[in-house]
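#dry-run=false #mode=assembly
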Amino acid sequence: MASPPSTLRRRWWHRDPGDVGGNPAGRAARRFVSSEHVGGWAFAAPAAVIIVLFGAVPIVWSIVLSFEQASFSPGGKFVGLANYREMVHDPTVRQAIAHTLEYTALFVPLTMIVGMLLAVAMNRKIRFISLYRTAAYVTMAVSTINEALIFLWLFDPSYGIVNYVASLFGLPQQPFLNSPSQALGVIVVMTVWGWTGFAVIIYLAALQGIPQTVLDAAAMDGARPWATFRRITVPMLSPASLFLAVWLTINALQLFDEVYVSTQGGPVGATTVIVYYIYEQGFQYFNIGYASAIALILLIATLVVTAVQFRAGRRYTHYRS
Amino acid sequence: MTAVPLPQRRPRRFRLRFNPWHLVLAPVSVILVFPFFWMLITSLETQPESLHFPPVLTPHQLRPANYPDAFNAAPFSHFFVNSIVVAVVTVICNLVLCSLAGYAFARMRFFGRTTLFIVLMATLMVPFQVTMIPQFLIEKWLGVHVLASVGINHIGALILPNAATAFGVFFLRQFFKTLPLEYEESARVDGARRLTVLWRIVLPLSLPALATLAALTFLDSWNSFLWPLLVVNSQDGMTLPIGLETFQSAHATQWPLLMAANVMSLVPMLIVFFAAQRYFVRSVAATGLGGA
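#status=ok
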């Protein structure tokens, strides 16, 4: 049997609409969006290789590692569900999850409230307004380490100025980061400060999208400022609020830097959050199999938050046209 | 005819000569910048005055020598250069690689495009902390078997995993898709190659998006802490956050020295921030509005 003509051997992905004919200009225009396998791959490959190597491969590898007993030296041993069984019975895992949730439950709403109130206050054209705004924005330029060092000093139990201010109100000296019951709260305060600029920017941008006519109409109907804020501003800000809630939650679940610098998970494990425990197991005890199993908790939590975002985004937010 | 009296406003008893919102915003701003202010004061205090309770609000004696002392106590200039090199190279790599890939996904048709795109986007949802252990193993392997300068303890290991990000590819693809096709088509009809079209037509139209991506990447790289903490153990490869943390653990209660080091590491970023504040603000606002 004679081999088929070469045109028939071409696969479907070789199809080039430009081949069909027609006028030359149309053909060129169509060829413009036509198949370019080599070119497309050449353009996409450099970025794709890096993202696959350092993003996709490690996900699969993490899952494989979670079924192994392994350290950084080569040769892991398959142990089935042993890591997961250990995890269920590890009180530190339970504590780490509890601390992470506690931190998230404090940090996310506080940052959003501070951000929204400041943005509403700053959304007006008065003198010095750019100065006021800059005071909030500038917290964005501060790295987590700078931030942690400053607050470590502000909240120093013996010589810190916060304790001094507290003493002016007749409060006794507080141990702050040395106290198991207060340490996480101090970390909440420093991170809320650090994220203020971000939250203010998001809310200010959203506020500028609220049409003045709506506010004017409310004023004509005699709405008081508080009613306008509650009935118009807050609902109109809900897309921004949803975005911030998700973004801040995902970041809160990943809390590490401040803990590492200020408390190293202590005192007596009071600030051991999930990522800190992953770090401890993986890079201090070299139990990378166990650490990978714990890391999957973080992955699942993040995926749940993302899924909630998609659902909530469809149902509860107000959308401008 | 009697003149109808104009309705007269009841004169207010008390009238502020300025907008009352200043009464809210001024104190709030003071609280927000107070941590900076206190850091600066402490960085100029003497050691005994800093360890005094109640705190010394106005130092009796300024000690600017804390700055050279801190600067000489650790190789801060070295950390600084490392941070700059890592941030700048990371930004350049991202702009180049994400533009190429973003353009391919926006405009070109190639076999496996959708699948590849889905794979790349899936990595967006996975936190770095989940994958850091395998990433470490990969870097270690690359350093031993492929190229020493991307291995553990080299700054190449800080650049390579972040040289292209799924976020960057996605962000630029979305932007490129909003550009009108006509310019590119006419250039193609004139026989221009893809790379020429990208370089001459698409990128010049995309400067705002590129600036946004550059600002966000720079901020991320400059402030990155956990990955450098894992990868770099020797002072040669340390960036500023890691160097600062090491300095802190060595000088735990020397607050004036610590705060001086803190100020020095913060000032470069503050300069960049104030110089490009508009861009930073726009970039952050863009990430928010993009999601809404």
